[in-house]
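Appendix C. Worked example: Translation initiation factor eIF2B subunit epsilon
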Amino acid sequence: MGAQKKGATARVSEDQEELARNPLQAILLADSFATTFRPITLERPKVLLPLVNIPMIDYTLAWLESAGVEEVFVFCCAHSKQVIDYLESSQWSSQPNFSVTTIESHNSISAGDALRLIYERNVIHGDFVLISGDTMSNMSLTQVLQEHKERRKKDANAIMTMVIKKSKPSPITQQSRLGTDELFMAINPVTKQLLCYEDKAERSKGFISLDKTLIADNPSIILHNDKQDCYIDVCSQEVLSLFTDNFDYQHLRRHFVKGLLVDDIMGYKIFTHEIHSSYAARIDNFRSYDTISKDIIQRWTYPFVPDILCGSSAIKVERQGAYRASDVTLSRSAHIGSFTFIGQGTKIGNDTKISHSVVGEGCTIGSNVTIEGSYIWNNVTIEDGCQLRHAIVCDGVIMRSGAVLQPGVILSFKVVVGQQFVVPAYSKVSLLQQPTQQDSDEELEYADNTSGTGELRSDKLNGDIATDLSETAYELGTGGVGYIWSVFEGAQDEEWKHSVAPIPTDKLVKLMLDKDEDEEQLTQDGNVLSASGELKADSDDNGSEDDDNADSRDDYGFFEKEVEATFLRAVHENVKVDHAVLEVNALRLSYNMASVDCAGAIFYSMMKLAVESPHHSASELHRNAADIITKWQKLLKSFLHDIDEEIEVILKFEEMCLESAKEFAALFPQVLHLLYDKEILQEDAILRWADEKEGADESDKVFLKSSEKFVQWLKEAEEEDEDD
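Step 2, the predicted output written as C-alpha cells:
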C-alpha cells in the first residue's frame, strides 16, 4: 500500500514538474478555411460574429482559460487586422497567467498551412490543445490530458486524442442537430483507438467499407453513427511535424486524420475521449449557429452564459429563460416571450412580439413588429409592422415599415430592405456582389484569405461602398439597397438543410418517402451491424428467445430516449406539431416500433417534463401537466388509433407513478380526467381498463381505487346515454 502511494505521489510530482517546464498551450485557428457563413464572412471574420451578443472567440478563450490553458496562439489570416485589433483591445490582452498571442499570415490557404507555419515559429513545446475559434465547450480538460499522457508513456505513436460526444443523427435528414452530415466512426471499445473516420458515407450503396485487416487486428470493433466530433484535439508535438513532412495534408479531418488511419508504415495512432455530461460543439453552419445559441440561452453551456460573461449587473435573467439588459426601453404593450435575449440600449415599440430570438445592442424596433426564432445583431432598425421569422439580421441593417423576412433569410451588414418588401425564403442579401459562379467554394475561401482581395472588400465597408447598387435596388423594394444572391445549381438542398429555419414539412415528407424506398435495398449479405453498433458476422444460430427479448427491451430503451430528445427539442425550439410527428414517425421506422410504442414514449416524455419543470406543490405539478398536455395533445393523439392503444397509455402512466414519476401517484385520477377531457382517452378505454383491473391482485388495483369516483361517474354517464 505504501509503495503504491509513493508511486502515485511520484507520478503527480512528475506531472507538476512537466507542467512547470511546459505550461499547457493551445492553438486556436481563427480561420475556418471552409465556411457556409457567406456572405457575412466576406466582411467580418467568423470568430468575431456575435453568439448571443458575445463574439464567438470570447466563449472559446473563456473556456480555455478556465480549463487551465496558460498560453494560446491565435492563428489568423482572413480579416487578420480585425481579429488582432479586437484581441488587443479586449480583456484577453491583460489576463494574469493567461497569454494570448496572435500569429498572422496572408499566404496560408488551409489549416495545414497554418500548422506548418506555427511549427516553423517553434512556439509549441509539449502537448497542446488544437481548436478552432468557433468552438463552444464547458468540459474539463483534466481527464483527457491525463489519458493522453498515460498513453504516450506506453506508446509513443499515440499522438492525438479527439474529443467526441453522443449525438444520434436524425433518421430523416441523416444530419445531426448541428446540421452536420452523419458521421461514422469505427472505435476499439477497449482501447478507444479510432480505426475509421467517414463523414461522407456512400449513401447510394447504403453501406460503408471497412478494411478487413481492422477486423483481423482488433477482436472487437464498434461502428458508430451516433457520435459527434467536437473538434477539440489534444495533440503531441509530432502532429505539427507531420504536417510539415506532408504538404498534402491541408484539411484536419479529410486529409490528416484519414491519412494517419490508412498509413501502415509510420504506425501513428489516434484515440478518442467521449464526454457525457459536459457540453462541446462547433459552429459549422447556420443551423449549428441556431442550435448552439439556443443551448446557451437554455444554459446548457453554464458557466459560459451571457449573464456571467457580461456580468449580472449588465444582464438579468428573468422568467422562462428571458435575458434583458438593464437599460432596455420596452413599451408596456410589448411582449417578450421565452428564451429571448435583449441587449443594451435597445428600444422596443408598442404591441411588438419577440420570442425565441436574440436582439443585440442599440437596436430600434418599432410597433406591431413580430420577431420569432431570429437573430438581430447590433444597431439594427426595424420599422413598424415588420415580420421576421427564423432569420439573421447583421449590424446596421434597416428594414422599412411593413417589410417581411421569410424563413432562412440572411441580411448582411448595412443592407436596407424597402417598404412592404417581402424577402423570399433562404435569400442571402449583401451590399457586396456575389462571387462568380465558376469559382469553386475552396477558391472563394482562399481568395478571402489573400491580403489583396480580402482587405479590399473590407476597406469598402469602412468607407463608402464603391459598388454601384442603383441597378439592383429594385430587388429589395422602394428604397432598398443590396444584392440578393442567387442559389447556385445543385445547392438548393444545402440552403434549407443548413438554415436557422426549421426544415419545411414538404422536404421532410419527401426525405421520408425516399428513405422508405432506399430501405428496401439495404439488406445485404456478409457482415451486418447489430443494434448496438457492434460489427458481427452472419450466423445460422438465431440465439435464444431470452436474448431476443433482451435486445427488444434494449431497443425500446434507446427508442424512448430518442423520442424524449425529439420531444424536448420540439418544446424548446417551438417546433410545429406536424414536424414533431414526422420526426417521431422516422424514429418509429428506424427502430421498427409500433404506433403504440410511440404513444407510450411521447406520454412518458410529457409527464417527465412536467415533473422536471419548476413546481412547489401538487397543484403546480398538475398545472404543469395540464399545460404540456394541452399544447402537445395533437402529437400524442397522432399515435393513438384504437382503444387498445389508449389503454396502453393508462398502463404506462401507472408504471410511471410507481417508478420514475412517483410524484404523480397522488394525482393519478386528476390526470386521467384531464386526458379524458382533452379527448386523448375515450370513455371506453378507461372503462375497459377498469374492468380488466377488477380481477387483479390488490397491489395492482391501487390506482383503480384512487380513481373510483371518476370511473363510477363514467359508468353512470354511459348508463344514462343507454337509457336515452
